[in-house]
Amino acid sequence: MKITVFSGSHKGREGNTLIMVEEFLKGAEEAGAETENIFLIEKNIGYCKGKFECWLKTPGMCTMRDDMDDLLPAFMASDIAVFACPVYFDNVPAVMKNFIDRLAPVLLPHFEEDERGEYRHAKRYEKFPKIAVISNAGLPGQTNFEVESLFFRRLARTFHTELVAEIYREEGEIFRGKSNIILKPLLGKYKKLLRCAGREIVENQKLSEKVVRELEKQIVPASLYIKFGNEEWDRLCEQNRVD
Ligand SMILES: Cc1cc2nc3c(=O)[nH]c(=O)nc-3n(C[C@H](O)[C@H](O)[C@H](O)COP(=O)(O)O)c2cc1C
């Protein structure tokens, strides 16, 4: 099984998202998957021009030449494509949305009705990768993922596929406290769960309810996260100000 992660943090290899992705992939590899983690921010991906040239002029292929020449086949060759990113203003970051817009060539122009009586574009290929989401949000609360969750469910429908896993970590800045004596064991436990999720996705193509429930548990109480978070912001503002 091939699992490709399309990592959409604008911080790339410095991001909190990467910590989640690495643990998930360790579990997937333990269960025998071949994995790849692609940092979208390091790629040259132009904006979709919105002219449907990938449907009209060069069917199945964009007319722009950039890194999507490799990324689109990498997406289609995956058994599971993982969209990994932080929440930016309740949604996916621009680099992730830009990548998703450029997946348009995998569809056909023609409209069709789906099994729920809604409409979408027909598929160009028989087999599409299943999709999964890994995301983290700086604020406490699972409600921070409401928009992303709806978006990826709709995207799975649009791409004629299935959303097999949603892993959402509230209080995502907690990863920056990885050497904190109190947080370290709590993060260790969470990382173990992520590895378990990686194994489950390979073995069962879905996550167990137990793992989802555990993954969604708050790691520290919101009141503490807010208190220490605000103290950290004060310290960082002081340290970084350019007068
Ligand atoms: C422009 C911007 C918008 C953000 N919007 C939200 C938001 O709406 N809700 C939230 O909980 N966190 C928000 N955050 C915080 C990030 O989700 C958080 O810092 C996350 O841990 C960053 O992940 P990364 O290190 O992988 O980039 C935002 C951050 C940025 C830079």
From TrEMBL:
GO terms for molecular function: oxidoreductase activity. The keyword Flavoprotein applies. Its cofactor is FMN; [4Fe-4S] cluster. The keyword Flavoprotein applies. It comes from the Archaea. Residues 1-104 form the NADPH-dependent FMN reductase-like domain. Signal peptide: none annotated. Keywords: Flavoprotein, FMN. Belongs to the SsuE family. Isf subfamily. This is Flavodoxin family protein. It comes from Methanosarcina flavescens.
